[in-house]
Amino acid sequence: MMMYVVFAFLLAQRVSELFIANRNEKWMKAQGAREYAKEHYPFIVGLHVLFLLSFFIEVTVFHKTLSPLWFLLLPLIIFTQLIRYWAIYSLGPYWNTKIIVMPGTNVILKGPYKFLKHPNYTVVALEIILFPLLFNAYLTAVMFTVLNVILMKIRIPAEEKVLETVTDYRSIFATKSRFIPKRK
């Protein structure tokens, strides 16, 4: 039963994010923004769809149960979700699942972006590990962590190159870490 609740949450979250991204994309493009590095986006969508399918199948078909460490994993998952929503809220209409940038604008430096270059990618990486571990779905956790790392090695440099070219990204984020906040 718990798996169905968690899976429904993940599915609802992903669908609602696509609606938000679509709305933001329309607004940004109406303001003169352009989409960049489109070629890898279908692979990112595919990764997320296959992750959800793999997670669901591994847990339901192989009768995986809630981890005995659920009391540690669940608070971590909740924390990652708070960071996700904080990141989306902080970027407002500029948040998107695609690389859409408005040339000449300033990079947003609020919320979790005060501490990290890519808080949303950090959250996704943690989710890909934590949700499967919550139900002992080790194959999904390992396989999709590896696939996500491969895709992020393409996505993040592409995004940073665009941001450095058309915004003040380089000067703003020169001292910030990509994924883990630096100690002062």
Automatic annotation (TrEMBL):
The alphabetical list of record keywords is: Membrane, Transmembrane, Transmembrane helix
**Its domain of life?**
Bacteria
Q: Cellular component terms, GO, for this chain's entry?
A: membrane
TM segment ranges: 41-62, 69-88, 128-151
Give an example GO molecular function: protein C-terminal S-isoprenylcysteine carboxyl O-methyltransferase activity
Major site of localization recorded for this protein: membrane
The record gives the membrane topology as: Multi-pass membrane protein
Cellular localization per UniProt? Membrane
Q: Which PANTHER family match?
A: BLL3993 PROTEIN
Name the record gives this protein:
Isoprenylcysteine carboxyl methyltransferase
